[in-house]
Automatic annotation (TrEMBL):
InterPro entries: Ribosomal_bL9, Ribosomal_bL9/RNase_H1_N, Ribosomal_bL9_N, Ribosomal_bL9_N_sf. This is Ribosomal protein L9 domain-containing protein. It comes from Synchytrium endobioticum. One of its GO terms (molecular function) is structural constituent of ribosome. One of its GO terms (cellular component) is ribosome. Keywords: Ribonucleoprotein, Ribosomal protein. GO terms for biological process: translation. Residues 37-73 form the Ribosomal protein L9 domain. Belongs to the bacterial ribosomal protein bL9 family. The lineage of its organism: Eukaryota, Fungi, Fungi incertae sedis, Chytridiomycota, Chytridiomycota incertae sedis.
C-alpha cells in the first residue's frame, strides 16, 4: 500500500483528513469556529433578510445578535439545523423595485434644476439684475 504525502506538511492524506475532522468537531489551531445565523435585516457584505449565513463567532456575538440584525441557528453535531422547506432568497420582490424607482426620478429632476441655476449664475450675460 502506497502512502501519499502532502509536500507542504509532510503528513499523509489520511492524517490530514483526521485532523480536519477534529477541527470541525472542536476549535483548534488551524480552523476557527464559525457559527450560522439567520439574518433579520439586510447586512452589507453578508446577505439579505431571510438568508442563513456562516459568520465568525465574534462577529455574531459582538455585532449581529446584540443589534438584533440576526439570531443564532441551532446546531446538531457541529452542523446547522436548517428547516426542510428553507430556500435562500434568490429574487428581489417587485414591490421593492417600485418603491425605489420614484426616488431615483425625483432626485434627477432636482439635479437638473440646480445645474441650470449654476449655469445661469456663472454666465455674466444671463445673470439676473440685482439692485
Amino acid at each position: 500500500m502506497t502512502t501519499l504525502l502532502n509536500i507542504t506538511t509532510r503528513r499523509s492524506i489520511s492524517a490530514l483528513r483526521y485532523s480536519n475532522t477534529l477541527c470541525q468537531a472542536r476549535r483548534c489551531k488551524f480552523k476557527k469556529a464559525d457559527t450560522h445565523v439567520y439574518l433579520l435585516k439586510a447586512v452589507d457584505g453578508l446577505g439579505e433578510r431571510g438568508d442563513i449565513v456562516e459568520v465568525g463567532l465574534g462577529h455574531a456575538r459582538n455585532y449581529l445578535v446584540p443589534f438584533k440584525l440576526a439570531y443564532y441557528v441551532p446546531r446538531l453535531r457541529g452542523k446547522a439545523v436548517l428547516p426542510s422547506d428553507w430556500k435562500p432568497n434568490a429574487q428581489t420582490s417587485q414591490d421593492d423595485i417600485a418603491e425605489i424607482t420614484p426616488a431615483i426620478w425625483s432626485d434627477t429632476s432636482e439635479i437638473k434644476s440646480t445645474e441650470k441655476v449654476a449655469r445661469t449664475m456663472s454666465d455674466p450675460l444671463q445673470r439676473p439684475f440685482i439692485q
